[in-house]
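Extended Data, panel c. Modelled sequence:
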Amino acid sequence: MIKKSEFFRKGIHLFNLVIPFLYYYVFTDKWEYLKILSLITLCFIIIDVCRHFIPIISSIFSFFFDKMLRDHELKGKLTGATWVMIASCVSIALFSKPVAILSLIYMSLGDTAAGLIGQKYGKHKIGSKTWEGFAAGLVVCIIIAINYNMLPKYIAITGAFSAMIMEILPIPLDDNFKIPLGAGGIMMMLLSPI
């Protein structure tokens, strides 16, 4: 059974699609968009840190978000939303536009599918994750890759596999950070001439 709070959390996760879509459709210049995104990310970091030390921020933040937070986020770690913003800035700064957009879409849709299916139907564990969640996330990412026309198909599909492998690897980094950075890094290596 998936908790109601998890649906809200994944709903917010889907809202993260606004970042790559704005990059594609609105803010077409990389550095202009990165300046805006960096300022927003700085605000996220400041609020995320201050919620542990400033009572009024803590109260407001708790009222709206505590039910959606994981234990480690409640105990002082940065929230998944803050990691999304950090990963978005790093991805856009380091990767070509087609790679950054696709890696952020994988993070948003692939991780959401993996999380929801893994929690609902997951029976076979891989550490703290499940094979069922991995398979669901991979199917979603492959569908995206097949329909994504800004990169060669083999690169997009390799990125899909990389994204979901990063999701299940027991690397002590937030999924919202390691998925786009791992997938994007692999796709950039494949794009680079030998």
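The two ends are 48 Å apart (CA to CA). This feature is highlighted in the accompanying rendering.
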